[in-house]
Amino acid sequence: MIYYFSLLTLFLCVVILSFNLRINKSILYLIGFLIPLGVYGIFHHLVFFNDSAFQLALINVQSVPLYFLAPPMLFFYVRSTLKDAPKLSTIDILHFLPTIISFGLVLPFMFKSFDYKLALAQQFIDDPNAIKTAHIHSFYPNFGNVIARPTQLFIYSLICLFIIWKYNKKKSSSSPAAQKKVLVKWLISISVIALLISLSYMIMIYFFITTDNIKKEVFNQLSVSLFSGFAYSIIPVIIMVFPDILYGIPRVSKSNLIQKETEATAAIKEIEFDQIAKDPFCETAVQILNYIEQEKPYLNPKFNIDDVINDLAIPKHHVYYCFKTLYKLNLQNLGLITVLSMPRNYYSPSI
Asked: Nearest 5°: phi and psi at 69?
């Protein structure tokens, strides 16, 4: 089960990257979390459920640094989504140290012959207990990596839940309530799922290391192994059911929020959109409408939504939020020309 949901996760990463990268840059961090998770699921399947030494040799040791990348990527995704700021600071480089160190340690292995990698993969398949004693490098035995990976994910998952709790505690009014509610639930869900996956693997590793000559059949029938497979299946399912989570949380500046709401409310009343004033993103909504009405960019046959984004210097997921949540319009089905052809009282946004 883990294998197929891992493949589905990797496929969804391609889809998410293709359709959402220009809308929300923070999606790169989500991809950086999901890909290692998917690859590790495939590795687990190849060792305990499959007999293909060739497939295992392709991802066996050389994928280890990738696994250490998943926890910080989850943290960056949660943090950047809550702050609506995808850029990393200089100090954030420290989060990549485990990945960098791991890459340096396995680098010599990457230059080994494929026959050597194939023989090691076959050894793991024939007897998974060999993972405990294998020395991929001279600094510490291989099971050190096996223990460190879920432990790191467990710690980062707790940190993610803490910053989400801290964000909710502030009860910031600078984020649109409708969008914030959905995204916070999603961030809590993915952090909890990561926590459950890390816990299940920590328990499995405990049984694996403390049991002498454990058999594949016994290991695969452990309740915690079945639970881990279930946890793996949840993430791709949630992504397919709730695609709106990928757009991010638009936010206005707190310092000018009161002044902006006052000015926006006055403008909204003139164009009969009183209810937009209830949303903290009202100024952007009015700015977009005024731009379309005054500049008439739709007269250009090549006009599209990117023109609004570039001319007004507004992030794409902010524009999407205004059209979808405030204007109640689907950008994929309604062109902006259609918007202006409607009477002003045709679409009265509500939150």
From this structure: -85, -25
